[in-house]
Specification:
Length: about 375
């Protein structure tokens, strides 16, 4: 199969769909890989590293799309990229369609087969291609939250871990999944006062055992969240409904009760965000203020640590990319129902029900 890797063009996105090591694996398996020039520059991979791995370098994204069958990216295609997709293309990347109707409609119009990293599953019901970036985003959320709590950044002027004689900051983490756990690990390491909120009692019990006395856990009722938001210095929104829009757990009225200079970090912003006041921001302009509360809602958080993120993502995606290239999309999905769970758009229709329901678009299941 001819596999294409265009340079990412989303604002401040430096990751790359395939590292040279991944290219070498695909070439070794008998596939042709075509890479847009400077696609790997954001993580310090020169074109020479790709040619050494067996890739062919072309000058433009248009050439990549024109000459290949499978497009491997990191972030959702921008409008200029959607315009280059054709019915013969297989697109393999993050999509997050539930929060992006224009993209969904564009992909439907293209006729391309679109498999989303974030809805591919595994045997345990997990999301293996979302996991590495959830880990990165979770750990980053505490890092950026601590930064924006600094007075110079407009924050309350609170040190996350406190000092002897001064209490640490209160950190409320909404959601006990991969992002939430990784956020908690970082916050605990910085000696913050951490509470995780979740609606699964079983999950709360697991977290209680995992962290022992290092954190507190609480059932995520509306009243509990309202109380948490009121007193927290840092609130991290880490709620995930696979493929669907994130629930709005924190209302504008709750935010009005927060201390001035408190910080919200919305990891769920790719799926629309879990704070009522959230809207997507960029690394170039990452924060905004509502009622004196700083909101960090960057939609591609892991792009800030592009090298770490690109390697972590490729470790997870490469086996699936190889399967798709070796067998073709339909045969690969028939052979692997977990990969088939990643199918979001097929022959002009939405093939993932939660996305169709959230966007009010027609749904048609893939009959593989």
């Amino acid at each position: 199969m001819r596999v294409g890797v265009p340079k990412e063009i989303k604002n401040h996105e430096y990751r790359v769909g395939l590292t040279p090591a991944s290219v070498a694996e695909l070439v070794h398996a008998g596939h042709e890989v075509i890479v847009e020039t400077k696609a790997g520059m954001g993580i310090d991979f020169e074109d020479e590293a790709y040619t050494d791995a067996g890739a062919r370098i072309v000058a433009t994204a248009a050439e990549v799309f024109d000459q290949t069958e499978m497009i491997v990216k990191v972030k959702e295609p921008q409008q200029s990229e959607i315009a280059m997709l054709k019915p013969h293309h297989l697109l393999f990347t993050y999509l997050h369609l539930a929060a992006d109707k224009p993209q969904a409609e564009g992909l439907m119009k293209s006729g391309a087969t679109c498999i989303a990293y974030e809805t591919v599953t595994d045997r345990k019901g997990g999301l293996p291609l979302l996991k590495p970036m959830s880990e990165v985003a979770g750990r980053m959320s505490v890092q950026v939250g601590a930064h924006y709590l600094e007075k110079e950044q407009g924050g309350r002027g609170v040190l996350l871990g406190g000092v002897p004689g001064v209490a640490p900051a209160k950190v409320a983490i909404l959601g006990g999944g991969i992002s939430g756990v990784n956020a908690a690990q970082m916050a605990v390491g910085m000696r913050a006062d951490v509470t995780i909120y979740d609606i699964s009692n079983d999950r709360l019990a697991e977290l209680d055992m995992f962290f022992s006395s290092q954190i507190k856990t609480e059932f995520a009722s509306k009243s509990a969240i309202a109380e948490a938001v009121k007193h927290a210095n840092l609130v991290i929104g880490a709620v995930l409904v696979p493929g669907a829009a994130a629930p709005k757990l924190v209302t504008r009225e709750m935010i009005k009760t927060m201390q001035r200079g408190s910080v919200l970090v919305d990891i769920a912003i790719d799926q629309g965000g879990c704070f009522e006041t959230s809207h997507a921001t960029t690394h170039e302009d990452p924060v905004f203020e509502v009622d004196g509360v700083i909101h960090y809602c960057v939609a591609n958080m892991p792009g800030a640590v592009a090298r770490t993120s690109a390697f972590a993502l490729n470790n997870a995606t490469l086996p699936f990319a190889l399967k798709l290239a070796n067998l073709g999309a339909e045969a690969a999905m028939k052979a692997d129902p977990h990969l088939a769970a990643g199918l979001n758009v097929y022959k002009g229709k939405i093939a993932f029900k939660a996305v169709a329901d959230d966007l009010g678009l027609p749904y048609e299941a893939w009959e593989g």
